[in-house]
Specification:
heterodimer, A: alpha/beta, Glycerol-3-phosphate (1)-acyltransferase, 8-stranded mixed beta sheet, B: about 525 residues, alpha/beta, 2-enoyl-CoA Hydratase, Chain A, domain 1, Rossmann fold, globular
Chain lengths: ~350, ~525
């Protein structure tokens, strides 16, 4: 046996020919890539050639003949939130929610809770569908939920906004138990996750508008959100109206502003047998609109207008932007309770 | 995501080093550019409810058989035979497939009021299983119900009273099998079909046969004509067993065959890197590799062996079929190929392989030099259909420490075979003609086989015959990292490094050879065009 070092023999490519029959297709493919073109090396290969950490201490290089699979994103709708529903995390979140979030909500939003008696006999899990004007909506609504719902509720959050960075996904998953939802279309993965969680006795908060209001008036409710999930899971939808939160943290503004808010829970709505989710979605939106009307007037007026089909639209009048803003800023703030009562305050 | 099929990698500059098994150790070797590496398919989906699938298979048998419950009646004699410790590899996590299947068969027998039921381990000439091994294979429930009453026995190929001669095939092959099995109203055989060679008529014709019968197909001539054992259409071993199986059927022995296939999920999570493609190793795999390889490098071989032999494979059942032997086996073979088949274009000048710590005949034991040869030349070399992976006159390079070490309890005749026979000749035909009969009939070996846990005296000869096709086909065999005296005794050449081995191989196959590495285990079958 001739004496030769291992490195000499193993690294002598000329000593082994590439059989024309073997891997011919790949060889042709490489030729098409350009004769003489520099072949791209993976960073770890370059590192090892430069005398830096070799495999397996460093990540392996990728063979040129093997096509790379498309990168699998772990963000957006692909972010796995299962960890945030494990018991230790739930316990930590409950402590934060009860000891930090709720006092903060009281200090900043001073919420008045109305209609929560409609939840008293309701069996969970349920879907809370609310209008959406501010980032404060979610912590406020969570703070106002009865205890039996509060710590077993997940929040549907925009996958492209809350899950576009790892740290954001981690933070919001921990603080609010958010799950990623595609807001522009029905995504099977996110819908399946929501239904799976409903089946596992988790309540769900969802904002059917798909995002915060740009000007204070609500946007059209997305038919493929609360109504669709309710139809598929056969669970009731509790319409919720949040009034006043647009002053706290509206779109485009940083920093909190103290104000007074009203959280109104409506009567739970069940999808009728065979009811189209779009029709059910219209019912949910109408229920929220009625509660919005009630927040600006009174219950009886709102009921009469609902019966007559003259409830003002959540989306506001079709008018020039300044007029829409003008109407919002001039709307009377309906407040009929003593702000000094014990928190959370309830309507008399 | 559906499991990916097998893959042939063309090694280039960016290819990371390739994992080589080396007995109870492993290493990463950089292969020359232009080499190929054959990777096994990923584990295919397992049956969601194996119990329901087994019941369905027993109730809806294939090949013109009545459902098993219809074959069971009070007063009948029922024998259940099953594969021994050599399957599967590594031994699977509990519950073993044999337990799952036999419990269902026994449930049906109990429902039908069958009292006379016996279980037989189909040992052929293998060693007897220990109580712990039987409990692992069958479960405590079956073991405790049958073993204390003498109804769980191990086939004894040397007990004249327990054998019955059924006749001769048209090729003059004597068929002698277990008497209890032959004289039963129904013989249920429970297989684990790890590779395409397992099962079919081989189950009874080999597993329950005597030396007198086995010698007709366990000989150099049959092995050299079997190209390969895994391809039933070109295997003389298969043809001989089929002739015997048909004679068994003509003799009136009613065999109800149950065959099962496994996915190739071979290693538990701690060793998962062993079945992944190197460029896909994540941080966990690399840490696992480094931790395991560094720890094993510092662990004495016997302890490393104990660690590995305690590994239980997370194999899962992928199919179960029951009924008439040949119809069942056809389905089984298709299912085995669905998991293990890899299409490979063309042969190679040099075939490399790393041999793991385990083979069919050293479960809880030592892979001695003869078993090293059998593992490389007998099993992995024969993992092909069509043509061998390596061309005629090519070189096989295997990595294994090949210690001159034997388990005296399990392999007593191997020690003498290695000392006395291989020191004289390594030619399988000469080995057979000069030495086989004396070892096969040696009363001490027979005694150890019947009363201890020893392989039969003739078994090392069979291991050597198993290599006969490869020895005839190859131009040379090189063992990397092997014990030099032991490797030379086998008639092979030893090399210290893969680089040295490649250089030595070039002396045989010429300059600029093609090279293919068989990345197994997990088990794969090369379909060579």
């Amino acid at each position: 046996m001739r004496a030769r070092t291992a490195s000499n023999s193993l690294r002598a490519p000329r000593s082994v020919r590439t059989d024309a029959r073997l891997g011919a297709a790949d060889a042709a493919g490489r030729r098409r890539g350009g004769v003489g073109a520099l072949r791209r090396l993976a960073p770890s290969a370059l590192a090892s050639r430069a005398g830096r950490t070799p495999f397996p201490l460093a990540a392996p290089s990728w063979p040129e003949s093997v096509p790379r699979p498309p990168p699998v994103s772990e963000l957006g709708v692909h972010y796995d939130t299962a960890w945030s529903r494990r018991y230790p995390v739930r316990l930590a979140r409950a402590m934060v929610l009860d000891n930090v979030t709720r006092p903060l909500a009281r200090a900043v939003a001073s919420p008045l809770i109305r209609g929560d008696e409609s939840l008293s006999g309701l069996e969970g899990p349920v879907i809370f569908a609310a209008n959406h004007a501010s980032h404060a909506d979610t912590p406020l609504l969570l703070s106002c939920l009865p205890l039996r719902f509060r710590h077993r509720t997940v929040v549907a959050a925009a996958a492209d906004y809350f899950f576009d960075r790892r740290w954001k996904a981690d933070v919001w998953s921990f603080l609010l138990a958010v799950i990623p939802i595609e807001r522009t279309k029905i995504n099977r993965r996110s819908a399946d996750l929501a239904i799976e969680l409903l089946a596992d006795d988790w309540n769900l908060i969802i904002f059917p508008e798909g995002g915060r209001s740009p000007d204070g008036w609500a946007q059209t409710f997305h038919p493929a959100s609360a109504a669709y999930l309710a139809a598929r899971s056969s669970r009731p939808v509790v319409p919720v109206h949040l009034d006043g939160t647009r002053h706290i943290l509206p779109k485009g503004r940083r920093g909190l502003r103290r104000t007074r808010t009203t959280v109104t829970f409506g009567t739970p709505l069940w999808p009728d047998d065979g009811e189209d989710p779009r029709r059910f979605g219209v019912r949910i939106e109408a229920a929220v609109a009625t509660m919005a009307n009630e927040a600006g007037s009174d219950w009886w007026t709102a009921r009469k207008q609902a019966a007559a089909g003259t409830t003002p639209s959540l989306q506001g009048p079709e008018a020039a932007p300044w007029r829409r803003s003008w109407m919002l800023s001039s709307a009377p703030e309906h407040r009929d309770t003593d702000p000094g009562v014990e928190w959370p305050r309830r309507s008399p | 995501m559906s499991p990916r099929p097998g893959f042939v990698l063309d090694v280039d500059r960016s290819t990371p080093p390739t994992l080589f098994w080396h007995g109870e150790r492993f290493s990463l070797e950089r292969l020359p550019e232009g080499s190929r590496v054959i990777y096994a398919p990923e584990p295919i989906d397992a049956l969601k409810d194996p119990g329901a699938s087994i019941r369905a298979a027993l109730n809806e048998p294939v090949g013109d058989r009545d459902p098993l419950p219809a074959l069971l009646r009070p007063g009948m004699r029922l024998t259940i035979a099953f594969d021994d410790i050599s399957l599967p590899l590594p031994p699977m996590q509990r519950p073993d497939i044999r337990q799952m299947v036999i419990e269902q068969v026994l449930d049906m027998a109990a429902d039908a009021g069958v009292d006379d039921v016996a279980l037989i381990v189909a040992l052929a000439l293998h060693r007897r299983m220990t109580e712990a091994e039987l409990r692992h294979a069958l479960g405590d429930r079956i073991y405790d119900a049958f073993a204390p009453n003498g109804l769980l026995t191990q086939h004894d190929a040397e007990d004249p009273d327990a054998l019955v001669h059924l006749g001769m095939t048209d090729q003059g092959e004597e068929v002698e099998i277990n008497r209890r099995a032959a004289e039963s109203d129904l013989l249920v055989y429970v297989n684990i079909n790890l590779v395409a060679m397992d099962g079919g008529h081989k189950s009874v014709a080999t597993g329950l046969a005597s030396y007198r019968s086995l010698r007709h197909h366990h000989n150099p001539e049959t092995m050299q004509k079997s190209r390969s054992f895994m391809d039933q259409h070109h295997s003389e071993l298969h043809a001989s067993n089929w002739r015997m199986g048909r004679l068994i059927a003509q003799s009136g022995i009613d065999v109800f065959q149950i065959e099962t296939t496994l996915n190739n999920d071979t290693f538990p999570p701690a060793f998962r890197f062993l079945q992944k493609r190197e460029w896909e190793w994540g941080a966990r795999d690399r840490v696992g590799y480094l931790a395991a390889s560094k720890a094993l490098d510092r662990t004495p071989a016997r302890y490393a062996r104990q660690i590995f032999h305690s590994v239980r494979a997370p194999h899962r059942m992928t199919s179960v079929q029951a009924g008439e032997v040949e119809a069942v086996h056809k389905l089984t073979t298709d299912n085995v190929w669905a998991q293990q088949g890899v299409a490979v274009a063309g042969q190679t000048d040099i075939l490399t392989m790393g041999l793991p710590y385990i083979g069919p005949y050293n479960v809880n034991s030592i892979l001695n030099p003869i078993l090293v040869a059998c593992m490389g030349l007998g099993y992995l070399f024969n993992m092909y259909r069509g043509k061998p992976l390596v061309r005629e006159g090519g070189v096989l390079i295997m990595a294994h420490p090949t210690p001159w070490e034997f388990n005296p309890v399990h392999h007593p005749s191997y020690i003498d075979f290695f000392d006395q026979v291989l020191s004289e000749t390594t030619d399988p035909v000469e080995v057979a003609t000069r030495y086989e009969e004396s070892y096969a009939t040696d009363p001490w070996y027979v005694h150890l086989y019947r009363t201890g846990h020893a392989y039969h005296g003739v078994h090392p000869f069979y291991m050597w015959y198993w290599c006969a096709h490869a020895l005839q086909h190859l131009g040379g065999v090189i063992v990397v990292g092997g014990d030099h005296p032991a490797v030379h005794r086998l008639g092979f050449r030893a090399a210290s490094t893969l680089a040295d081995a490649l250089e030595m191989a070039e002396d045989v196959v010429g300059a600029s050879p093609t090279l293919t590495h068989l990345h197994a285990p997990p088990i794969l079958m090369a379909d060579v065009h």
